[in-house]
């Protein structure tokens, strides 16, 4: 997620930079002319799964997701890789092959890259996309009465943590990988077609953390129905066993002042709602009368969507109800 730099640069001195110096958002947006703007983002991280090819696909899909969250299309990407000197180069080749496959699936191209030697493998992309300046899907456009639609299942963090501890079922891992490598391109196109007002992608700050960002920037509260949230197979089981990444408790501690649970939620369930996602889905906000158009567009794009909540008047708080 892009953080503002307004303490260093005066936004008024850079009027073509539409997103990047003031309110935080998923990517920077720079206007070229009345009909085109460049969207730019970067993301990379250590492996979350054992298979190098799958890791490359996941990291690439995750990096490109920020372009889609802004309503844009990917043009090209630059590889960013760190790799230990004592590992076989075949591993790096398969990581890069996986990333290239996902970029190609996005209708884009890998245009180069940079690699350094490091103690731990890391991989990701610097991504450049394009968007109509009048159709940017920023976080801060949610209005009271809007419906919230989530386009991927949740629970990646607990599943990949169980994998690291050798406690994961292979079918659960396979399901998480399928979800993580899925591009958000179709979901973003559907959001644009339906006239969505605000979008973000759900990644490391968890569903509730990213929802707070949307709510805070929009000046509303967001309300989620727990029973409506979609979960990957195995997620609840690993949560019950308290198999969580460290980021879950960090997210809970940081965002807790803004989150209110109404009903019976045990510690495991609360932590699960703060589970860090990797290459998660889009959270789309739009007026209720546009919901049928979104559902039709998601279906036409081969994407999924679950109605998970709604926006109410407020000041950035999140409520989760049983």
What report would you give on this structure?
The protein is α+β, with helices and mostly antiparallel strands. The protein folds into 2 domains: about 10-135, 2-Layer Sandwich (60s Ribosomal Protein L30, Chain: A), CATH 3.30.1330.10; about 135-320, Alpha-Beta Complex (Phosphoribosyl-aminoimidazole Synthetase, Chain A, domain 2). It is built from 10 helices and 13 strands. The strands form 2 sheets. It has a 7-stranded mixed β-sheet with strand order 8-11-7-12-9-13-10, with helices on both faces. A 6-stranded mixed β-sheet has the order 1-2-3-6-4-5, covered by helices on one side. Helix 1 runs parallel beside helix 2 (about 90-105). The protein is globular. The two termini are about 30 Å apart. The mean pLDDT is about 95.
- The fraction of residues in strands falls at 25-35%
Query: Shape, please?
Result: globular
Number of DSSP E strands = 13
Largest sheet: 7 strands, mixed
Say what the CATH topology of the largest domain is: Phosphoribosyl-aminoimidazole Synthetase, Chain A, domain 2
SSE ordering: EEEHEHEEEHHHEHEHHEHEHEE
Annotation keywords:
six-stranded mixed sheet; 60s Ribosomal Protein L30, Chain: A; alpha+beta; 13 strands; Phosphoribosyl-aminoimidazole Synthetase, Chain A, domain 2; 10 helices; 322 residues
């Amino acid at each position: 997620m892009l953080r503002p730099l307004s303490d260093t640069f005066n936004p008024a001195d850079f009027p073509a930079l539409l997103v990047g110096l003031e309110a935080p958002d998923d990517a920077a947006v720079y206007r070229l002319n009345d009909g085109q703007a460049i969207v730019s983002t970067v993301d990379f991280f250590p492996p979350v799964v054992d298979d190098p090819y799958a890791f490359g696909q996941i990291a690439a899909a995750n990096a490109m997701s920020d372009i889609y969250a802004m309503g844009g299309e990917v043009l090209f990407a630059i590889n960013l890789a760190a790799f230990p000197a004592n590992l076989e180069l075949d591993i790096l080749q398969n990581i890069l092959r996986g990333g290239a496959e996902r970029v190609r699936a996005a209708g884009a191209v890998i245009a180069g890259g940079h690699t350094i030697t490091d103690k731990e493998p890391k991989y990701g992309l610097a991504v450049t996309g394009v968007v109509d300046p009048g159709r940017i899907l920023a976080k801060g456009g949610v209005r009271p009465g809007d419906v919230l639609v989530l386009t991927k299942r949740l629970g990646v963090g607990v599943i990949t943590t169980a994998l690291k501890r050798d406690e994961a079922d292979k079918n659960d891992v396979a399901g998480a990988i399928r979800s993580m490598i899925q591009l958000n391109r179709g979901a973003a196109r559907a959001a644009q077609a339906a006239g969505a007002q605000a979008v973000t992608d759900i990644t490391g700050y968890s569903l509730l953390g990213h929802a707070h960002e949307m709510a805070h920037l929009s000046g509303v509260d967001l309300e989620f129905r727990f029973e409506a949230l979609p979960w990957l197979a195995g997620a609840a089981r690993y949560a019950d066993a308290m198999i969580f990444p460290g980021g879950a408790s960090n997210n809970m501690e940081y965002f807790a002042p803004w989150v209110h649970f109404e009903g019976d939620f045990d510690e495991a369930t609360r932590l699960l709602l703060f589970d860090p996602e990797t290459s998660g889905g889009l959270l789309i906000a739009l007026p209720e009368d546009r919901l049928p158009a979104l559902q039709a567009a998601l279906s036409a794009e081969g994407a999924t969507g679950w109605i998970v909540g709604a926006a109410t008047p407020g000041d950035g708080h999140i409520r989760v109800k049983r």
